[in-house]
Amino acid sequence: MVIAGANRMLGRAAASQTQTPPPTSAICVARRSRVALVAMVIAAAGSGGPGRAELQPSQPPSDSGRMKSSLTPLGPPVSRDRVIASFPKWYTPEACLQLREHFHGQVSAACQRRNTGTVGLKLSKVVVVGDLYVGKTSLIHRFCKNVFDRDYKATIGVDFEIERFEIAGIPYSLQIWDTAGQEKFKCIASAYYRGAQVIITAFDLTDVQTLEHTRQWLEDALRENEAGSCFVFLVGTKKDLLSGAACQQAEAEAVHLAKEMQAEYWSVSAKTGENVKAFFSRVAALAFEQSMLQDLEKRSSARLQVGDGDLIRMEGSPPETQESKRPSGLGCC
Ligand SMILES: Nc1nc2c(ncn2[C@@H]2O[C@H](COP(=O)(O)OP(=O)(O)O)[C@@H](O)[C@H]2O)c(=O)[nH]1
Ligand SMILES: [Mg+2]
C-alpha cells in the first residue's frame, strides 16, 4: 500500500518537472507532492518511530496570502487558516477527550520558550475509518481542498493528505489517510492502521446501521496500535440532511456510544463545511499537545539519566553499591 502511494506521488512530482514553465497550480501540486513524497519515503524507511516521520527540507516559496511560521525553516509557509493560536474547543462536553480550554501549562511554556525539541518536524498519522459511502473522502476533501464533489469517485489505491499547521507558534503536520475503497470488503491492510496517533471513526447521521458498525471499525484499528496510544473521535457526517428532533435523536445515540468508546464526538457536514475546520483543528491541537508532552517527558528523563551518574564512572572508582545510588528523581546535572 505504501509503495502504491509513493509511486503515485513520484508520478505526480515527475510529471510536474517536465513542464517549462509550469503553471502556478502545477507548482503548488509539485510542492505538495514533494513534501508528501519525502514524508512517505522516510515513513517507509521506518525512521522516527510509528506513525511519525520527520520532514526534510524543501524550498520555501513566497505565496501571497500565506504566513511564514516563526519556526518553519522547512517547507512552504503555513496558510493562515491553519494557524491555531488558542486551544480549540470540543463539540459537546458530554463526549470530549479534553475539557480544558487552554493548552497544558507545560506545553504553553515550552512553546513560548521555543523549547519544543523535534516536535515541529514530525508528522502525526490520522486514519479515517467507517462504512463505505458515509462520507470519509468528502470530509477529508472538504478540509484539505475546501471542495465538495457530489459524485466523488471511490478512492483508488492508498490516499493521504499532509496538512501543515502552526500551533502555538510551532509548525506541526497531520498525515490524514483515506481508505482506498477496501471498506467494502472490510479488508483494510493492517499497515493502514499501524502507528496511528488519531483514529477517526465516521458514520452517516442518517443511517443508524453505520453508527453500529463503528464499534467494529474501532476494534480493528485499535488492534494494530498500542493500548492507550491513540486519540479516538466519533464523527457523524451529513449533518445538513438532518434537523430538529431527528438530529437531536441521532446525536444523542452517537454521544452515548462515544462515551462507551472513550471517543470525542463531532457532527459535521462536508457539503456545507459546518464544523469541518473546527473539528480538524481540534484533532491537530490534541495530537500536537500529546506529542509535546511526550517529547518533554522523554527529554527530561534523558537528562535525569545522565545526571544519575549511572552512565559515567571515573576509572578506578569503587563499584557502586545499591545503597549508594541516589533516587533517580533527585538526579540533576
Ligand atoms: N448531503 C451530504 N452528502 C454527503 C456529505 N458527505 C458525503 N456525501 C455524499 O455521500 C456519498 C459518499 O461520500 P464519500 O465521501 O465518497 O464516502 P466514503 O465512501 O465514506 O469515502 C457521496 O455521494 C457524497 O456526495 C455531506 O456532508 N452531506
Ligand atoms: Mg472514500
TrEMBL record:
<keyword id="KW-0460">Magnesium</keyword>
<keyword id="KW-0636">Prenylation</keyword>
<feature type="region of interest" description="Disordered">
    <location>
        <begin position="311"/>
        <end position="333"/>
    </location>
</feature>
<comment type="similarity">
    <text>Belongs to the small GTPase superfamily. Rab family.</text>
</comment>
<dbReference type="GO" id="GO:0000139">
    <property type="term" value="C:Golgi membrane"/>
</dbReference>
<keyword id="KW-0449">Lipoprotein</keyword>
<dbReference type="InterPro" id="IPR005225">
    <property type="entry name" value="Small_GTP-bd"/>
</dbReference>
<keyword id="KW-0342">GTP-binding</keyword>
<dbReference type="GO" id="GO:0005525">
    <property type="term" value="F:GTP binding"/>
</dbReference>
<dbReference type="InterPro" id="IPR027417">
    <property type="entry name" value="P-loop_NTPase"/>
</dbReference>
<protein>
    <recommendedName>
        <fullName>Ras-related protein Rab-36</fullName>
        <ecNumber>3.6.5.2</ecNumber>
    </recommendedName>
</protein>
<comment type="function">
    <text>The small GTPases Rab are key regulators of intracellular membrane trafficking, from the formation of transport vesicles to their fusion with membranes. Rabs cycle between an inactive GDP-bound form and an active GTP-bound form that is able to recruit to membranes different sets of downstream effectors directly responsible for vesicle formation, movement, tethering and fusion.</text>
</comment>
<keyword id="KW-0653">Protein transport</keyword>
<keyword id="KW-0479">Metal-binding</keyword>
<dbReference type="GO" id="GO:0003925">
    <property type="term" value="F:G protein activity"/>
</dbReference>
<dbReference type="InterPro" id="IPR001806">
    <property type="entry name" value="Small_GTPase"/>
</dbReference>
<keyword id="KW-0472">Membrane</keyword>
<dbReference type="Pfam" id="PF00071">
    <property type="entry name" value="Ras"/>
</dbReference>
<dbReference type="InterPro" id="IPR050227">
    <property type="entry name" value="Rab"/>
</dbReference>
<feature type="region of interest" description="Disordered">
    <location>
        <begin position="47"/>
        <end position="76"/>
    </location>
</feature>
<keyword id="KW-0547">Nucleotide-binding</keyword>
<keyword id="KW-0333">Golgi apparatus</keyword>
<keyword id="KW-0378">Hydrolase</keyword>
<keyword id="KW-0813">Transport</keyword>
<dbReference type="GO" id="GO:0046872">
    <property type="term" value="F:metal ion binding"/>
</dbReference>
<dbReference type="GO" id="GO:0015031">
    <property type="term" value="P:protein transport"/>
</dbReference>
